[in-house]
Amino acid sequence: MTDRGDVLLEARGISKSFPGVKALDGVGLTLRSGRLTALLGENGAGKSTLMNIVAGVFPPDAGELLVMGRPVRFTRPRQAQDHGIAMIFQELNLVPGLTVAENMFLGREPLRRTGLIDYAALNRKAAAWLQRLDLDVAPTTPVGRLRVGQQQVVEIAKALAGEVRILIMDEPTSAITERETEVLFQRIADLKRQGVAIAYITHKLEELSRIGDDVAVMRDGRMIGSAPLGALSRDDIVRMMVGRDLNERSPRTSSATGDEVLRVEHLSLRHPGRPGDFLVHRVSFRVRRGEVLGIFGLLGAGRTELLECLFGLHARACSGEVFLGGRRAVLRSPADAIAQGLALAPEDRKRDGLVLSMSVAENASLASLDRTERLGLIRSRAEREHVQGYLERFRVKTPSLRQRIRDLSGGNQQKVILAKWLAAGPRVLLLDEPTRGIDIQAKKEIYAFIDELTGADLAVVAVSSELPEILAVSDRILVLCEGRLTAEFTRAEATEEKIMHAALPRKAASLC
């Protein structure tokens, strides 16, 4: 490692908490001039939170940042930008109604003497950067008209067009083509030669041999270790990423009976922005009565999209066949899916699973309104009587069934969603991140409910980005990588390292 004179940024003892979650716990990180540091870790390890603090998106609760050896404290992104820090966000941070050029120079537009924006200079500067990044679009094109991969390149151009000394890249290649990735790597090499320090978040370990210099691995909000890239093997890195106490696994007795409930054959979902590409590609599997099939994958693996296809949310873009109870199912809409015995507890429960302005009872009855209405009108008393037993079964803590759902804790909201679907009498329950954002005790209760439901012969397909959770609840585990099925393990065969190896993208000739 080089001497400390080349340190451009140092984070010391950074901690950050959000309601119910300690995202960072005393994390340190050093970024050096002309070197790319790969920041690695599972989903939820704290990587993006740390980088958002460096970029001024929100302040730390404790610890300090030093830029060029001087302490700084950012309360907004513009302050970080003024210190030469730019961030390419995992979630696109563009204004769809503005042009490519306007997005690239938003807040730092070239001005005429009159104080008005010099659009000729603006478009000229933007065109030069677009050419360097090999993006063949006009700078006057509204960003909203571009496909996702093109928007990602605009996001990259926006960061590079500033006076950047420290560049943060959060999964920059997750939505771009191989050609666009190659051009990006060329620009990264240029930046390193110019002395820019780069922090690079990725799950694609094969990229690092091309662009990486150092590796820093995070786990559960802590920095596990850092080293020059050449000092660590792939196995070393995976072990650091997942090296928990495996005693966290809780015992589960399989209730699978052998009777097939759900069969999926060659399910595919076309990518909306890349012709010929797929978000899910030819995935096949079976689920038995009383079985929990776990699905694991990293960002962009297609986990959520797979469940959404099964629930009829992308009927026009999906292909393949689905069989329920041995009969081919036609799933053109969620209503079709519900009618044929499928239920989906979505990843974003507040946006997709609940109506926050409605009561507990109203939310719990949404999937089975036919049992509470007469002549097209909902009978409130019948509604409460219908769902009360299910809410009690899931031990939902609420002062009243008339309580607004928004006032309940995250764990109790998730229980209401489970009660809602159980009241509809499903055959297959699809769970997308069933314990995200809820406390440890509520997690344990959800796990117990899954055991209880499968004991009553319900089939469960559970998606989770938490390896211990997948190992704890599943009878079998499927691993997805970039939309494809890359491995299947029985509960006895599965280990964290095996699963992570299968989930990490490799070149097309090998794993993926």
List segments where confidence is low: pLDDT < 50 over at least 5 consecutive residues. 245-249, 508-512
Please state the oligomeric state of the protein chains shown. single chain
What portion of residues belong to β-strands?
25-35%
**Integer-rounded radius of gyration:** 25 Å
Profile the largest sheet.
6 strands, mixed
**What distance lies between the first and last C-alpha atoms, to the nearest angstrom?**
33 Å
Spatial strand arrangement across the major sheet: 6-7-8-3-9-10
- The coarse silhouette is globular
Would you tell me the overall average pLDDT? 86
Tally of strands: 22
Helix proportion: 25-40%
Class based on secondary structure composition and strand pairing: alpha/beta
User: What is the count of helical runs?
Assistant: 17
Structure description:
The structure is a single chain. The chain is α/β, with parallel strands linked by helices. The chain contains 17 helices and 22 strands. The chain has helices at 47-54, 77-82, 100-104, 119-132, 148-160, 178-193, 208-211, 234-242, 303-310, 334-339, 349-353, 360-364, 380-393, 410-423, 440-455, 467-473, 496-503; strands at residues 7-18, 21-32, 36-40, 62-67, 70-72, 85-88, 166-170, 197-201, 214-219, 222-228, 260-270, 278-288, 292-296, 318-324, 327-329, 342-345, 373-374, 377-378, 428-432, 459-463, 476-481, 484-490. The strands form 5 sheets. A 6-stranded mixed β-sheet has the order 6-7-8-3-9-10, with helices on both faces. Strands 16-19-20-13-21-22 form a 6-stranded mixed β-sheet, with helices on both faces. Strands 2-1-4-5 form a 4-stranded antiparallel β-sheet, covered by helices on one side. α8 crosses α17. The chain is globular. Mean pLDDT is 86; it is low at 245-249 and 508-512.
